[in-house]
What does this fold into?
Amino acid sequence: MKIIITQAEAMERKIWDDVMLMFGLNEDDKIADTEQFILTEEQARQLNLIG
It folds into this structure.
């Protein structure tokens, strides 16, 4: 299973810093709030998005 989350959703859920680490991003990268990130089932579990 794959989970898609946008930058805006990650910010709302206060997991954006963790998503940035998972995808090797840093504060200097320009990311649109509608940018989508595809998470594996394991990544989604690590972020407590699924049980």
